[in-house]
Amino acid sequence: MKIRISKTYLSIFASLCMWMFATSNAYALACYIDDDPNAMAESVTLGAVAYLKGASNGDRIWESQTYTKNVTCESQLNSGEENLYVYPYPRRDSQQLPQGVKLGLYFDGKDLGLFDADGDALSSKVKTDHIFAKGEKRSITVTFKVYLEKQGEISTQGVTNLTLFQLDGVGSLRDSNYALSINGWDNIGSVSCDSSFVSNNAKLSSIDTDKALAGSASEESTVGSVKLSCSSESTTVLSHISHVSGTLKVNGSPFSGNSGYFATDKTGLGVGASYSGTSVAPGGTLDLSVPVSAGAGSKALTFTLNPHLTTSLALGTPDWLFTSQAQDIKSDMTLSFTPQSLQSD
Questions:
Q1: What is the helix, strand, coil percentage profile of the chain, to 5?
Q2: Using an 8 Å Cβ cutoff, are 212 and 255 in contact?
Q3: Per-residue model confidence as pLDDT tens digits over 56-87
Q4: How far apart are CA 310 and CA 303, in angstroms?
Q5: Which keywords has UniProt assigned to this entry (predicted)?
Q6: Which of 200, 205, 216, 214 is nearest to 325 (CA)?
Q7: For residue 338, what are the domain limits?
């Protein structure tokens, strides 16, 4: 007796086999902290994340420390092997995401870029270099660092605990596997900082002729101080700001004998200027960090001045060098400071 099997039956049978195979491999990797199968969730709390009001989109406003974790992963595959994957925003359907800011991740030293919440979590997974064979259980050491990048007007209203990524296999996401969450979203705030200056003329008390001719003379001169006044809608954010970093611009008239020097009120005499070992020419800029407490800060600006004589010396020439005018030599310098970034304690 022959048994005839219809094509429909064969199709159903094949589909059932494929479903059973897929189901048996659905949860291919179980990953947890160290060697504890119950330790799968970790969180990072944002400290005071302060960014300058008016900061450009694309500015990175926060970076975490680099975390090193020992993670154990156990393959539950029936056959073959698979990579470990990073799944961004695995709970995107149930968690509120911040507006105007995106999160990025360095994983094992590689920048995975900014995470996007569009689409589903499975399609946005990122492959790592860790590969597990069927039934393999192995501990691995992974490193990661989180960063925030401004993308628009930032709003964190309604954001509490956001799962940034989960480690899992290729096929699907387990209900519980190693995952990292970010909380403390109410600690983000914008800050405005205004700067002002108390300015003095750069002064040389006297001049050593031989050293000035050789270019080896130097003297310290406090040319002024910068003052900062910062404000924020968040008193918590403001209280954690420790420094404001930015660009100090030093304007002045260039010396006719060498445009890298500043002109002085004496014929044939220019002055070189440097701050903390970095030379600056008229119109040049320097990096400057100003300490801040409770939104207020100041910093005295002491420059090293190097006088340079370029005129030929003769009896009575230049005339100012042989009189009391060889003292209290002045050079006009105009300073301005543009805040660029904030540091928190």
A1: 10, 55, 35
A2: no
A3: 899 998 888 899 999 999 998 888 899 999 99
A4: 22
A5: Signal
A6: 205
A7: 191-344
Could you tell me if 176 and 40 are in contact, meaning their C-beta atoms sit under 8 angstroms apart? yes
Question: Is-above-0.70 flag for pTM?
Answer: no
Q: What is the CA radius of gyration of the chain?
A: 32
Q: Does one domain contain both 232 and 169?
A: no
Q: Residue 44 is encoded by which pair of tokens?
A: 């990072």
Specify the number of domains making up the chain: 2
State the DSSP string of 137-167. EEEEEEEEEEEEEEEEEEE-TT---EEEEEE
Dihedral angle computed from the Cα positions of residues 266, 268, 274 and 277, in that order, rounded to the nearest 10 degrees: -130
Q: Are 177 and 42 in contact (CB under 8 A)?
A: no
**217-269 pLDDT per residue, tens:** 788 989 889 999 999 988 889 999 999 999 999 999 999 878 999 999 888 88
> E strand or H helix at 273, and its extent?
strand 269-275
CATH number, domain with residue 69: 2.60.40
Q: CATH no. for residue 273?
A: 2.60.40.1090
Shared-domain flag, residues 111 and 252: no
Q: What torsion do the CA atoms of 89, 93, 99, 104 make, to the nearest 10 degrees? A: 10
| CA 111 centroid distance within chain | 13
For residue 52, the cross-strand partners are 191
Quick one: pLDDT at residue 1? Answer: 43
Three-class secondary structure of residue 237 per DSSP = helix
The whole-angstrom separation of Cα 201 and Cα 195 is: 19
d(CA 224, CA 300): 6
